[in-house]
Amino acid sequence: MSIQTAHGVQPRRPWGLAPWLLVGMGALFFASYNLANWATSRRADVPFFYFGWETHIPFVPWSIVPYWSIDLLYGLSFFLCSTRPELLTHVKRLLMAQLVSVACFLAFPLRFAFERPAAQGLPGQLFELLGGFDRPFNQAPSLHISLLVILWVAYAAHVRGAWRWLLHGWFALIGVSVLTTYQHHFIDVPTGWLLGWLCVFAWPMEKTPAPAQPDPRARRLAWRYAWGAAALLLLALAALRVSVSWGLLLAWAALALACVTAIYWRGTAQGFQKRADGRMPMATYWTLAPYLIGAWINSRAWTRGRPPASLLAAGVWVGRWPSAAQARRLGVEAMVDLCAELPRRARVTHYRCVPVLDLTVPAPAQLREAVRALSGFQRAGYPVLVCCALGYSRSALVAAAWLARQENLRDAQQALQRLRACHPQVTLGPDSMAALKIFIAQDEPYNGHAESGQ
Question: Strand (E) positions, 104-198?
């Protein structure tokens, strides 16, 4: 059902579906949570883990109020969603958090080790009510924190102005309350936090269809990332015996590589969820942080001691993914960004993002789009940089195609030689050269007509 407005057709809120999903998710929550509690309580010796400094965390009785408030926020969130797709995506995130958490509670049970002091008044009554169904098990990852992240994202999408700051403050209190109510140890918080962001990352609001024919190069790279994820996971398990902190960091890196494996296996650069303005959502930053840091280090390591960009023609540069300071030093006002795996840092007036997976070749449509954008910016008089992580392959292919069009070069090898005269570091493999040949064969010779890069 839809409503006709002055601005077009506005989808009707899914009021009828929301209560049914809420009832179903509520039943699943209590059934699975209590099952995990019951199963763990039957074990003879359930381990615990906490850092020594946690003994200094104060018990704050009134913090049970924000702790309990997540239940109300959970229920209301089903009626917050504006559209049916948004509601279904929200439920998928909650469902994933529930299932993964319960699986961890059953496979790796932990218990809370401290004795909770007595509380009086309303806090005491709330603690007594909580104790009626909660037990000191089901610790890591904290389901409370995972749901907090998912709900925080959901509410933040619908709140503006001063209410947004109030929202952030209250959700932060909920996060702290898991420690000050003596419900969780610290280790449960970052693991729950990461699981929450993984759920948001796995179920984005904007769906990206997979290509009809997955790129074989991307599939081969997916296997490499899969082996890397497996190796890191084994290292994480080994490190847990020495240091829990290092074990969890390595496990985070393994998770990030597993996500990158899925992106490459699917074969779409949109899996990184890089937006048209070059930014990435918070879910990408948190879930893929170890990989993003590694990609940045790789970008700088391979280009160390070399100019960050090379001048192709007056006002046209090709090079690596730039920092804000590097873009200012080059004096560029526009950028054509081929990098899918790194967010935009440079603040330029004009920007076009054509994300391509690293170590793969732009599709013909992507190559044409990037060349059009580069041509448009250049003809409009904006100093422009075409870039990727290193500036050696994806952006170099676009630069070669642009030179072929600009200078009416009808031979791919000639275009490559022209590019290498300005940018010696370029490495275009057979697949890139084949794509360049196709572009030249299908491209109309340059005739001076303006093309917009906006």
Answer: none
